[in-house]
Amino acid sequence: MNTKKIGIDKINFFTPTLYVDMIDLAHARDTDPNKYTIGIGQEKMGINPITQDAVSMGANAALPIISKEDALLIDMVIFATESGTDYSKSGAVSIHKLLGINPFARCIEMKQACYSATAGIMMAKDYVTLHPGRKVLVIGSDIARYGLNTPGEVTQGAGAVAMLIAEDPRIFSIRDETVMYTSDIFDFWRPTYSENAMVDGKFSNEAYINFFETVLKEYQSRYSLDVASLEALCFHLPYSKMGKKAMANLLENVSETTKERFLTHYEESIIYTKNIGNIYTGSLYLGLNSLLDNAPSLKAGHTIGCFSYGSGAVGEFFLLDLVDGFDEHLLTAEHTGLLAARQLLTVAEYEEVFSEKLPTDGSTASLSSRFDHAPIQLVEVTNHQRHYDFVGESKE
């Protein structure tokens, strides 16, 4: 049995090159901007051009962190999404080809609303434990769509997070102890015939809070966890205020010092979400990226409590431990540059981009977008098949 620590060796996120400002959107929707920027806590919404879908975004997120050496050692690509492009073929297969990963690898797609990337990480941890020296690539990639001028519009977003799971990780080790909880509910769902998600907003918030409190209480009971021993809590963030709502009862029962620490780190963890929006399966891990990049007080040995949630519903609470030298392996400058290079759309331009459609009749469409500067793009649809390639940059 492998006794080495297993965890997140590398982590990176990607979001497309476009965004709309929430104040502009509020004015266009005849709404008080404070409702969006303060009440919901969103500042910008990431928008994907037609040349970026869940597969291409996932590949772009993974591209900077997968070396040639990694590609030879990756035995599994796990693609977690609720924005899949095919009911049969996994998007992981396309990503596997684009990244030049070892051909003797397993490639699968996982679904359970916003939760499935966490299931992928736990599966990856188990695999690496049993196969020392091998690695697993886990990607959470999604496009959150609720439709134009709908109640959920302000929480839309697009992006992906890629994580390499390996032994002797350079960023986080994953604790063995974890608590999962499942209940069959309809707080959020998207039937196969609908392009846009459906949500019972009030019930969804209540379910999220209930799941967090339930799994945390069970974790404390099973493993005698003192929450004050945690440096920070990270949450799945359908919008930037949600995790804070879930923490409310907890914060009433901890010391002022712990409360202040949790709230400070929470604000650091939501910076990217406020500027991108909900990215479903990648959301919790976008928050982790944000915490890593924006929390100067983090140190090796600190433990982060993580709450993963996927409507319908499945929740999980688990712990990550920062390892020595983690801060030398972050892509903070690259993330800052990615966000700074995005292009602001007017609301009219956003609505035009949002409404663009791919052919569904089997006809051929060669795709390009003046807005897209990502290295990997969806370049063609022909005979109901999506084709991806490197655009403007070589794979090297």
TrEMBL record:
Entries under InterPro entries matching the protein: HMG_CoA_synt_C_dom, HMG_CoA_synth_N, HMG_CoA_synthase_prok, Thiolase-like
EC number: 2.3.3.10
Segments forming domain Hydroxymethylglutaryl-coenzyme A synthase N-terminal: 4-167
A single GO molecular function term of this UniProt record: hydroxymethylglutaryl-CoA synthase activity
Annotated Hydroxymethylglutaryl-coenzyme A synthase C-terminal domain residues: 255-354
Active site location: E82 (proton donor/acceptor), C114 (acyl-thioester intermediate), H236 (proton donor/acceptor)
Binding of (3S)-3-hydroxy-3-methylglutaryl-CoA, residues: D32, Y146, K245, N278
GO biological process, one term: acetyl-CoA metabolic process
Record key words, sorted: Acyltransferase, Transferase
Broadest EC class assigned to this enzyme: transferase
Family, per entry: Belongs to the thiolase-like superfamily. HMG-CoA synthase family.
Protein name, entry field: Hydroxymethylglutaryl-CoA synthase
Lineage: Bacteria, Bacillati, Bacillota, Bacilli, Lactobacillales
